[in-house]
Amino acid sequence: MNNESPLLQVDQLSFSYGDLRALEGVRFELHPGEVLGLLGPNGAGKTTLVHCCTGRLKPAAGQVRHRQGDPANPAVRRSMGVAPQGGALYDGLSAREQVELFAGLQGLRGREKDAAAREALAFVGLQEKADKRAETLSGGMRQRLNLAMAVVHKPPLLFLDEPTVGVDAQSRNALLDGIEALRRKGHGILYTTHYMPEAERLCDRVGIIDRGRLLELDSVPALLEAHGGDPLVIQETEGREIRHSSADPLLTLDELRRQGAQGRFRVEYPGLEQVFLRCTGHEIQEEA
Amino acid sequence: MKAIWLLACKDWRLLLRDRGALFSMLFFPLLYASFFGLIFSGGGSGDRAISLVLVDEDSSKASRAFVADLQAHKSLRISEAGLEEARDLVRLGKRQAWLRLPPGYGEAGDRLFFGDPPRAELGVDPSRKAEAGMLEGLLQMIAAQRFNQVFSGGEDSRQILAKTRDWLREDNGGQVPSFLRHLDQFYGTLDSLYESQEEQGLSAEADSLQATESGFGGFQPIVLERQEVVVRRQGPTSSFAVSFPQGIVWALIGCAASFGLSLISERRKGTLDRLRLAAVRERDLLASRTLACMGVMLGVCLLLFGFAVLVFGLRPSSWPLLFTASLASSWCFTGIMLSFSAFGKSEQAASGIGWGLLSLLAMLGGGMIPLIFMPGWMRSLSMISPVRWVVVSLEGALWRNFAPGEMLPALLVLFGSGILFFLLGLYTSRRSA
Ligand SMILES: Nc1ncnc2c1ncn2[C@@H]1O[C@H](COP(=O)(O)OP(=O)(O)OP(=O)(O)O)[C@@H](O)[C@H]1O
Ligand SMILES: [Mg+2]
């Protein structure tokens, strides 16, 4: 899909926490201008995979390579940005101070640094809260600050680990718009989530991850095509639901009417939820 | 390099906003040191007079008069003793200075402008440099007043003048050069002047002070020969010289605990990893920690001592040694901080074990009971605690009057144990990572 060399290559990656096999034989590539979503339930291994990709954890087997080289090397880390799950903020510093700290650590100086910090705060809509200490920000605002700290130096490769958890619908939309803008500018983004709609809207490709294995990885239409199954015609009558699977739901509806079926009818088209169910054999447990 | 500075600034900023940390590393030690210093000071700190032991080996009329003048001055607390005793009193810090009026003092004074001026020997406690200058000035002034009295009349003065005239004659082998004849005339005028003054009932003493000010120019009323004093003290100069090193111990413990806890919290909250992922090198992280922690410790030491000097009049016997001792102590406790932070995975665990251990070290090392009050066995036991060496080195520079060579063992112990703690901390945190 992209002729440029990948920003990130992961090959046969395995990782264990003691006896627990957290990742097993994971393979994928991430290209510039691509948002790659990792969809999986709690404990699937998403965060562990991100840690291996950023060089925080050393893989037990397999290989992780950035375009610049091995992410264990600090120089290579300069070209990536990470928004860790749950934030990792300095509660005692103001939003601006933390963003400026990370801009400074990434080598920005003086006016360039101030401008980058201002831009990053505007990107997540926190200009008004810039001088508030992180401990006084709400959960959603902290998430947004977390994202601002990751993007302040405009790295080509971004790791966003569930960046929208706890963010209200309006801010979430703004954030997703922002991430789409980054993609258009050619940033490559690895994005983990358990929100299906988010993955459907944002991701060029979605990987289904469960119990440490990357089960499927493809574009949403391709996944639906392969694993979504037929749409469902649902008949609600006398407090019961009768489900009719059908490749052509309009035809099925016609037939049901002709047979004199009673009740209300609706059609459900398959989404990532069905794909997930088919791939893993169980439903994803949404926390929300 | 820039990263180290940015991170140290970050640490300082966070620390300044942490009231608990500020209390434990600054206000508590200050309260502790001030409180115990005041309790044991016995209320004697209001006495600012300089204590001077006089050794009057002349016992002439002039020397007794000079002694009486000194005794009358309110800025001086005068006692008298033999030379050996006087020297010991100053050496042991019980008096600030001694002054010896050698035989012949009075005679030299009687000669006025002729021959050498009267000589006296002065020995001042070297830790009292500020007072030494003041004392010399004061002695010159009082001696000068004596002179003025000579010129402002009275029976004494006339006798002295007559004596001087006689000496001049004798020295010239009975010949009378012309300038002596002029001098005779001058003396005659002076005599009639005195008589008229007495008739008018003018007091000689009344204008003596003005006479000093109108002055003798470069003329020296007394020559003070400074004698070296090697101080060998047994006790501290003031109770604050004991309580402030203890306060510093608590401050260093407070700093080590605050920094250690903030490091643990950084590790637990993930900000430390975040820094690593932001391309900060491991050695820069370590260097920034060390810089931030040592900087704060040294700053707190200087603040506390500055306070003691300004408010309680503490006089360190050597500022450079005090700075060196503070630096070595800060280094040692920076190492302790690193070990402390490697102790527990959570702040609670570290607080529990760490505070316990640190308090034990402090107790053993003289942070609670001053070393000088410890029984012998306890003092030997205290050797194992770095706190002891902090106290010893600080006291060495404050009142024990250590020479640099005497300071060296304590400095080496602090420096070496700092390295050991540093390595222990590094090893433990590497292993748990
Ligand atoms: N530090 C750790 N030590 C031991 N086991 C761990 C550790 N971190 C994660 N695990 C285990 O590894 C597995 C994968 O965890 P991981 O955090 O990668 O999941 P995740 O997909 O990110 O979940 P979530 O959606 O809840 O964030 C889980 O079974 C988890 O219990
Ligand atoms: Mg996770």
What key phrases describe this protein's structure?
heterodimer; A: 288 residues; alpha/beta; Rossmann fold; 2 domains; six-stranded mixed sheet; 10 helices; 12 strands; 35% helix; B: 433 residues; abc type-2 transporter like fold; five-stranded mixed sheet; 5 strands; 6% strand; binds adenosine-5'-triphosphate; binds magnesium ion
Task: Give an overview of the whole structure.
- The complex is a heterodimer of chains A (288) and B (433).
- Chain A is α/β, with parallel strands linked by helices and 288 residues long.
- Chain A folds into two domains: 8-225, P-loop containing nucleotide triphosphate hydrolases (Rossmann fold, 3-Layer(aba) Sandwich); 230-269.
- Chain A contains ten helices and twelve strands.
- In chain A, strands 5-6-7-3-8-9 form a six-stranded mixed sheet, sandwiched between helices. A three-stranded antiparallel sheet of chain A has the order 2-1-4, covered by helices on one side.
- In chain A, helix 3 crosses helix 4 (110-123) and helix 3 (95-105) runs parallel beside helix 5.
- The radius of gyration of chain A is 22 Å and the shape is globular.
- The two termini of chain A are 34 Å apart.
- In chain A, 44% of the residues are buried.
- The mean pLDDT of chain A is 88.
- With 433 residues, chain B is of the alpha/beta class.
- Chain B has two domains: 2-41 and 238-432, no CATH class; 50-152 and 204-228, abc type-2 transporter like fold (3-Layer(aba) Sandwich), CATH 3.40.1710.
- Chain B is built from 17 helices and five strands.
- Chain B has helices at residues 2-16, 19-41, 61-72, 83-91, 105-110, 129-151, 155-171, 178-199, 208-214, 240-269, 271-277, 282-312, 319-343, 347-365, 376-381, 386-398, 404-432; strands spanning 50-56, 76-80, 97-101, 119-124, 223-227.
- In chain B, strands 2-1-3-4-5 form a five-stranded mixed sheet, sandwiched between helices.
- The longest helix of chain B is centred in the C-terminal third of the chain and has 31 residues, at 282-312.
- The model of chain B is unreliable at 201-218 (pLDDT under 50).
- The A-B interface holds A 54-56, 74-75, 77-78, 80, 82, 84, 86-90, 92-93, 97, 101-102, 104-106, 109, 133, 149 and B 2-3, 6-7, 10, 13-14, 17-18, 269-271, 273-281.
- Bound molecules: adenosine-5'-triphosphate and magnesium ion.
- The site of adenosine-5'-triphosphate (ATP) has 12 residues of chain A, from strand 2 and helix 1.
